[in-house]
Design a protein that fits this description.
Strand order of the largest sheet: 3-4-1-5
Distance between the termini: 12 Å
Number of strands: 10
Largest sheet: 4 strands, mixed
Number of helices: 14
Oligomer: single chain
Strand content: 5-15%
Radius of gyration: 24 Å
Helix content: 40-55%
Amino acid sequence: MSVRIDISGLRPTGPAPARAEPGGRGRIAVVPSPLAELGMALHALSEPAHHPGLQSWVTGVTARLDPHLADRMCEADFLWRTTFSDLFLACAGIPGGALPGTDLAEELELLDKLSDEQFVSAALEFTCAFPYETPGPGPLTDERMRHRALELAAARGPRQVRFAEGLLADPPRVRAWLREFLQDCDEAFFAEAWSRLRHQLAADTRLKTDLLRHKGLAEALAAVSPAVTVDLDAGLITVDKLGDTRTATADTGLLLIPTSLGRPHLMVLHRYGWQPVLHYPVGSPELAAPPTVEQLALRMTALSHPVRMRLCRHLARSAYTTGELAQVHGMTAPEISRHLGVLKKAGLLTTRRRGRYVLHQLDVTVVARLGSDFLEGILR
């Protein structure tokens, strides 16, 4: 399971400049986005459990937030809480690709340049009503898609229905509402946060750009996340995520946009007709590389078998040989060996030799991390 980005149309990276030209034509750009970071700020305020490291910031902002703005924040929180709307990466929707603005005002101008069809489709992404990776009619022109969007919005509750109805009836009014809301958020809390965060994001941008220029794409992506790999011969970037999707840079290029508030979310914009974007977290690196989705599935499956659960009860307390486990559990040595093999393949066992005996023990550190690893895997 992964998201794949076809980069066969990109110009070579390495000693040649790797930053995208205006419009993103065939290059890779590493650029911070104030609008995307504001979107992540709204997400963190709506879902603080996803971001325990931001607890003090969330508490501080919430405590001093104007009640009227807090109420408005709930009107369309499904744009940044249950999904992260592509509207926060509006630069990617500009025909031919564009770079993010240097400040929020420039970013909002890019948001204004999206067509009504683009705006409505991206804003209604939470309904899952429209094809995301393939071309298709939009709700402003197709009555069937319009009905489907409203039907799915209804399943989410009355606020979503009101928003969807207003959006379909009068897109300019909703666009104006969102623009004013984002400006008020900037004035209330985001401008202060951005004045601090932009330095960290700028430093990460310089680091990744230098890696692109001097070490190449593989080194730069390795620094982005252990979950991102590249096969230069195949012209393919693979992002280890729960999903099975594909997009291509074509002649628009690829944007790498860092976020300081977004950990643990590693997101890929792969909307049809939009420039691909890899939106990745910076700062506070993990003590160890997170397991792949495949490794996580292996570990969960390995521990779900009742026999292996009983084996783990012993192996968590001490190291045992296969023969000892067979005697304790009333099973044959080959049967025990098969179960141990499953646990070992999943990376849950450590083994050591003592003379002619091989001792097996549960790696309790790995098992203890499974809860947080599982949460990061599904949020990635």
